[in-house]
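User: Show me a protein chain along with its predicted structure.
Assistant: Here is one chain, sequence first, then structure tokens.
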Amino acid sequence: MTDHNISAGLRADARRNREQIVAAAHLVFTEQGMETPMEEIARRAGVGVGTLYRRFPDREALIRAVFAENIHHLMSLARAELGQQEDAWDALRRFLRRCVELRLGGLFSVLGRRVVEVLRTDPELMEARQAMLSLLDGMIRKAQDDGAVRPDVGVGDVIFMLGMVIRHGPPIASATADEARIRLLELMLDGLSATDRPPLSGSAFTIERMGLDRQAPP
């Protein structure tokens, strides 16, 4: 059973605590990094440290749960946008905007090599990650085929930029920072659009170039 499905078998109060902890950990890890004290995560979740450790006995278990929740949430968002929009570019823009609003996607750049450690021991989670990347890659390629997105970018370029927008917002009040992130996203989308611009240096960061098409982590 994956971390994403574990909560289905819990009592309502235990499930609520687990969801609060995962949501708080997602924000704290994104804002402060993976080594933030567990006490800070418990405080942000509104639960005691003992409750946190009953649900997640160590940091690795919590990281796994947060990563799994992020992947499944991203997949749900991508599928929803593809289902609502015939235009791939519109679907991609709406998907990325929702990612920024919900702070989804920035966690990948925080985890770094820890992603490999998580995936190495969880083939089901790796399969979910591959499915999510394929959805996003397909959305980008379709928008490129339609002539709406510049041809010299890949899914990796989009993921890198999304992580920067989400993680490195300006150090200002929360509401203003949220507005600034959306403005940065609009600039990012403008850079992705297929207009008369000189080509980018280097090669597009595709799934294959990033090594994300492999069945097992390197």
